[in-house]
Amino acid sequence: MRKFLAKGVAVGAVALLALTACSSRSDSDSSGSTGSDKGFAADALIGVALPAKTSENWVLAGDLFTNGLKEAGFQADVQYAAASGTVADQQSQISAMVTKGAKVIVIGATDAAQLSTQVEQAKQAGAAVIAYDRLITNSKDVDYYVAYDNFKVGQLQGEALLKGMKEKKPNGPYTIELFAGSSDDNNSGVFFNGAMDVLKKEIDAGNVIVGSGQTDIKQVATDGWKAENAQRRMDTLLNGSYTNGKTLDGVLSPNDTLARAIITSVKGAGKPLPVVTGQDSEVESVKSIMAGEQYSTINKDTRTLVKQTIQMVKDLQGGKEPEVNDTKSYNNGVKVVPSFLLPPVIVTKTNAAEAYANDPKLSPLTK
Ligand code: BGC
């Protein structure tokens, strides 16, 4: 299994500081020299290469990029990697975008470490490369990273898990299981490290016990972010470590799709539901939270993330340096990629109405 890039436990703290610090925008030169020699045509082709539709956020992103880029006057080429054979698929999609003369290529990587050749091709052809939501590793040619602060996502998940268990059962120790995302997605390690930044001290102190003893990311990863893989592992865990009436108090799930698979498994086994975390604010999970089943999710509003990315594209078009607010946290193994990080929000039943007040799709579910 490929190694998760060590994003460093310090990343969250640094990112937090960076979010509150002044952003380093260098396009406000009063002389008016904004580097417009570096710009490109206002109707240029912009490529967007997205991974397979492993969660709702990717489906939303595709539509938002297609419409948003067109509205901004660009030509948009938005592609998804196929559900199987995704790496080769995405590699050839990016190469085709370069050949067609795209001026910016936005990439939500299927496999963080498998795109350096294509990203280099883009660079040599004069295109800028923006890593979207997932960092691209082992490449010096990634220009920018735009994402929610994914280490913070993990920390919020870890905190929610502890809080949810305490609400249900005031006194520990608590027995939990850990799940992580797909090992080819750089985010999986970042989420997991963020969560462990919160949970490890509780585990070390004996307040929290991992029932199966599986605490290594290699043991808890979910290949392809697939629901069936998480469900199968949960079935196995329940049959192995939770017989004889042993209670499972909580499950760290990295996203909503896997959370619902875990809940399905527990229900199938006829066991009481543990506290289960999530991420993405998927419709079915928001319903589950309101029904008191899934405990938490994360709001990483895709509309804001796409808007921020399109703003970067517009800046590049005008020959300006796009705004970033973090130049320390996201090292891709070759360089620290200048990033624009947005703050994720934890959502439980308690704050759902407030958190989704401006989301016409989710807000009615919280009434
Ligand atoms: C995204 C998550 C998503 C997961 C699976 C991650 O890279 O950040 O929001 O749940 O991919 O699609």
UniProtKB/TrEMBL annotation:
Where would one find the signal peptide in this protein?
1-23
Q: Which domain of life is it from?
A: Bacteria
Domain Periplasmic binding protein per the UniProt entry, residue ranges? 46-321
What PROSITE patterns does its record include?
Answer: PROKAR_LIPOPROTEIN
Which CDD domains has this protein been placed in? PBP1_ChvE
Q: What is its main location?
A: other
Where in or outside the cell it occurs: the entry states: Cell envelope
List, in alphabetical order, the Gene Ontology terms for molecular function in this entry: carbohydrate binding
GO CC, sorted alphabetically, is: outer membrane-bounded periplasmic space
Which InterPro entries does the record match to this protein? Bact_Solute-Bind_Prot2, Peripla_BP_I, SBP_2_dom
Could you list this entry's UniProt keywords, alphabetically sorted: Signal
- Report what the protein is called: Monosaccharide ABC transporter substrate-binding protein (CUT2 family)
Species the sequence originates in? Micromonospora pisi
